[in-house]
Model the fold of this input.
Amino acid sequence: MNGLHKIFGVAALATFAFGGTTTAQAADCGTAETVTIAEMTWLSAASLAHIAQHVLQAGYGCDAQLVPGDTVPTATSMLNRGQPNIAPELWVSSVQTIWDEAQTKGAFYKAGDIFASGGEEGWWVPDYVLTEHPELKTIEDLKANWKIFATADTPDKGRLYASPPGWSSEITGANLFKALGLAETFDLFSSGSGENLKAAIARAVSQHEAFVGYYWGPSDVIGKYHMVRLGMPESDPVKYACLVDSNCADPQVTGWAKGQIAVAVTPDIKTTAPDVATFLSKMQVPNDKISEVLAWGDDNKATPEDVAVYFLKNYEPIWTTWVPAEVAAKVRASL
Done:
């Protein structure tokens, strides 16, 4: 890593002056202060927090500690208190005002995008639906192919599962449903909750039935049930601004905007721990691979720590690109 060469002289001087392995480890980390990492409440964010902690502790010798968090409280705390130092999965659109203020004040910055394809929202189907119905490729193909998704309750219409009530995506989906004219051939069905929506997908896949509805990725559901997002146009900012507005009078067809999901970091890490900052700038996972990992976690009722260890043991080609070889060797030996 380039940063390691830059601080080599300082590290060597500190080792000579003070001796001992503790100082050498602190120099590798770049700071003797505790590095705090937000452990948020959903599996992907919590697992990524444990992954970051493990790499920092085992690979860099940092005193890395997890602190409880969630999107808005964590972003607010980073803005006002400079803590925690790292939020590995911060959904920017959920805290846009806080994010914009933080960028103006320099309170925290985006080290990188944690998911290679960003946050993916849209209407998804199990992969076998596309295999069995090659005529169905995009959201614009739904209207003419409603019979694929007809149910016993809606024999004369297809059923499209909406986003759960209260989620911001509920508005977007309803407006897109209107823009596509789907009311002529589809029933926009509310499952009532995120858990019910997940259960509906599980039930459909277990019975090899057709399903189409809202979901997001990466997530355990996408990986576990081999869900594929229907194609859609590129997201037009003007059209999308109307889609997310509950008062949109004339919604137009456009794709869901790609979610910006940042590895958010306080600036003191960049100045006091440049090697750590470099690692965080490279910390990124392919969407399909993290969905696989989360599916394993769901299947095995694993804790976020279990998921982190599973990832580090089984997905070396991904995480070893984040760190120098000597750091990777330390992490590998710690597992």
